[in-house]
Write a structure and sequence with these properties.
The complex is a heterodimer of chains A (411) and B (249). Chain A has 16 helices and 14 strands. Chain A is of the alpha+beta class. Chain A folds into 2 domains: 204 residues, no CATH class; 196 residues, no CATH class. In chain A, the strands form 3 sheets. Chain A has a 6-stranded mixed barrel with strand order 2-3-8-5-7-6. In chain A, strands 11-14 form a two-stranded antiparallel sheet. The C terminus of chain B is likely disordered. Chain B is an alpha/beta fold and 249 residues long. The chains are: A alpha+beta (411), B alpha/beta (249). At the A-B interface, helix 1, helix 12 and helix 16 of A face helix 2 and helix 3 of B.
Chain lengths: 411, 249
């Protein structure tokens, strides 16, 4: 738009100060709410991706051929050491944990508990599954330690066992025969979730190899610095792992959990959409009122030869000015809130307890908002987008003013 | 002064008013040539404004033929009519209709900007205002000007792009006698110096006195078309002669 037309648009915005202030405030409130909701959405995505990864699934995982379809814990990687090396070389890899799993029965006295025994590398496992650090009795496994087991609090209670007790473990061997051994309970962990505490039983990976007769690891789990890079890491790692092995992201490993998150995100974005729609209608109404008020003026502009496109641009220019002001207001008001929200978070522990589990994932009910450079383009897109789109009809209405009719009516 | 600027043949315009049809023009024949200073007179409802709107390509006829500056108005699209108005026709309205948020200078400059005039448009706008004795008021907004001053700015806006045809719908209706006189002198002077064609509607006999040709409309038809002997122009523009002292409108 030429300089004078821009000045015209800007000054027109200031004609009705009260309406302009109300419009700017409306856009500002909408922008504030949209930013807050988006921060919440991003924070929730981050929270669930983090807790999902820290609950053991990792952000990406190298799995054996056929695991995706069968989810069979007896499957083993083609070359887990090569896979671990490739995963360790990934940019942004925070922890790389090989694991071997087996369905076993733990027994003590007359008590028997079925669990999935996980063979781990004790040196790295606590970094990949942080809840095993919550040892409430005894200690965690020592790297290289054989014949030792760490179990969840509920497992220990069901076995009525304590640290120092010997527990019988029985598993189906490679040839279908039953293999047994004795494990000494060295530690009890508590995650805060009964569901998870009823499923934890960890030993050195060699113990699982010995029990099942299946050599090597059944997975290599990778925790990344930034969960958003999971897809890129999967694609990169897929090219580097041993032939036959595959790479999956946390969402692919736990599709129910991801589906729930997507549903949750969709609901949040629907609410954001409703908020924006309300703002949108408010702006459209105010802009239409402004255009109707100036119908005679638009008729004169049309009489002077102003083209339809130019008149649309004039009204949209006014809308842009309103949107900019509203977006700046919303951003300025929201930034301190987002700052606080990203540091202190929204703490739901009072109502939900210190943690809860969902789909095998332990969730701490403290939701931190996300605050990043995204807020500026997001605020601009919301404020300008909503305002300009809301002004399209008023702009079209102005541009379609019939000068002869409008001037006749005005006279 | 031979070129035909406006040619109307059996021109008709009807409006729908509910279920009724109002025939505002009922076969107007009219020819206007370059440099004419023509007054359209007639009682209210006689069709003066309708005729001006058609000649100004603001509207399209419902019957007959109308050619303005060589273009058949009835056949022009909305966009083509807008382009014709922008390039070749200036308008002066009864109620001035200046853009309230622009200064006098910007109101004039705006038309030049619409035409795509280059960087010198501000100087050109200032020259026009100076020519009409409004140089000192260039930076005032319409609300800071009297009615007479506003109407002179409206004339400046209408003639800034040097259109071939200037249409004025009751331009003095809201002015007192003295300001009406000043305005008519200005328009006559512009016509004499730049060869523009002026067509204006009026009820005011003092304004009619300035016209060189008077066309009387009655019930949508031309009832009388009379040419008057042209008087010597009154020197009123600064630099040419002393204008009457501008007064509030």
């Amino acid at each position: 738009m030429a300089a004078l037309s821009s000045r015209y648009a800007l000054r027109s915005v200031g004609r009705n100060a009260r309406r302009t202030l109300l419009s700017v405030a409306g856009i500002g409130v909408g922008c504030f709410l949209a930013l807050f909701m988006e921060s919440l959405n991003r924070g929730r995505d981050e929270l669930f991706a983090r807790v999902g990864a820290e609950s053991g699934s990792g952000h990406v995982r190298v799995v054996p051929r056929g695991w995706r379809e069968r989810r069979d814990p007896r499957l083993r990687l083609a070359d887990w050491r090569a896979d671990r090396a490739a995963a360790s070389a990934l940019p942004g890899a925070k922890a790389v944990a090989p694991r071997a799993r087996a369905q076993v029965l733990l027994a003590m006295g007359t008590h028997v508990v079925p669990v999935e025994l996980v063979g781990v590398d004790a040196a790295v496992e606590p970094r990949a599954f942080r809840f095993v650090r919550n040892v409430v009795k005894g200690r965690y496994l020592v790297p290289g330690e054989q014949g030792a087991v760490v179990v969840g609090k509920v497992v220990a209670e069901r076995l009525e066992s304590d640290v120092g007790d010997d527990i019988l473990v029985s598993a189906v061997g490679k040839g279908g025969d039953i293999q047994s051994g004795m494990l000494r309970l060295v530690g009890v962990v508590s995650t805060g979730s009964e569901e998870i505490d009823a499923s934890i039983a960890q030993v050195a990976m060699e113990e699982v190899e010995r029990l099942t007769g299946l050599p090597g690891a059944g997975e290599v789990t990778v925790v990344l610095e930034d969960w958003r890079t999971a897809d890129a890491a999967r694609d990169l790692l897929a090219r580097r792992v041993a032939a036959g092995d595959a790479v999956m992201t946390w969402g692919e490993i736990n599709p129910e959990f991801r589906g729930h998150l997507q549903q949750d995100a969709a609901i949040s974005r629907f609410v954001s959409g409703i908020i924006l729609l309300i703002v949108f209608l408010g702006v459209a109404s105010a802009q239409l009122a402004a255009v109707l008020e100036r119908r005679r003026e638009f008729a004169v502009l049309a009489a002077l030869g102003m083209s339809t496109g130019r008149m649309v641009r004039l009204v949209l220019g006014e809308a842009l000015a309103l949107g900019l002001a509203g977006g700046a207001l919303g951003l300025a008001a929201c930034l301190p809130v987002l700052w606080r929200f990203s540091r202190a978070g929204l703490d739901f522990r009072r109502w939900m307890g210190s943690s809860y589990s969902f789909q095998g994932v332990i969730v701490e009910p403290i939701l931190y908002g996300d605050l990043g450079a995204w807020v500026i383009p997001y605020a601009a897109a919301v404020a300008l987008g909503a305002t300009v789109v809301a002004s399209l009809y008023p702009a079209w209405f102005a541009a379609r003013t019939d000068p002869a009719v409008a001037l006749r009516v005005a006279q | 002064m031979n070129e035909i600027v406006v040619a109307a043949r059996a021109l008709e315009k009807a409006f729908a008013a509910g279920k009724l049809e109002v025939r505002a023009l009922r076969g107007v024949d009219l020819e206007v040539r370059t440099g004419e200073f023509l007054a359209l007179v007639g009682p209210s409802g006689s069709g003066k404004t309708t005729l001006l709107n058609l000649v100004g390509a603001l509207d399209r006829p419902t019957g007959g033929e109308l050619t303005v500056l060589g273009r058949r108005v009835g056949e022009l699209s909305r966009r083509e009519r807008a382009e014709l108005r922008l390039r070749s026709i200036g308008f002066v309205f009864q109620a001035y209709n200046l853009v309230p948020v622009l200064t006098a200078l910007e109101n004039v400059e705006f038309v030049l900007e619409l035409q795509g005039a280059g960087a010198d448009r501000r100087n050109r706008a200032r020259q026009v205002l100076d020519e009409l004795g409004l140089g000192d008021l260039a930076h005032r907004r319409p609300s800071e000007l009297s009615g007479g001053q506003q109407q002179r700015v409206a004339v400046a806006r209408a003639v800034a792009a040097r259109p071939k045809l200037v249409l004025a719908d009751e331009p003095t209706a809201n002015l007192d006698g003295e300001n009406a006189e000043v305005l008519m002198h200005l328009m006559r002077d512009l016509r004499d110096r730049h060869g523009m064609t002026f067509v204006f509607s009026t009820h005011d006999p003092r304004v009619v006195a300035h016209a060189v040709r008077v066309v009387t409309l009655v019930d949508g038809r031309v009832a009388r078309d009379e040419a008057k002997p042209e008087e010597a122009p009154h020197p009123i523009v600064p630099g040419i002669g002393k204008p009457p002292a501008p007064t509030g409108g």
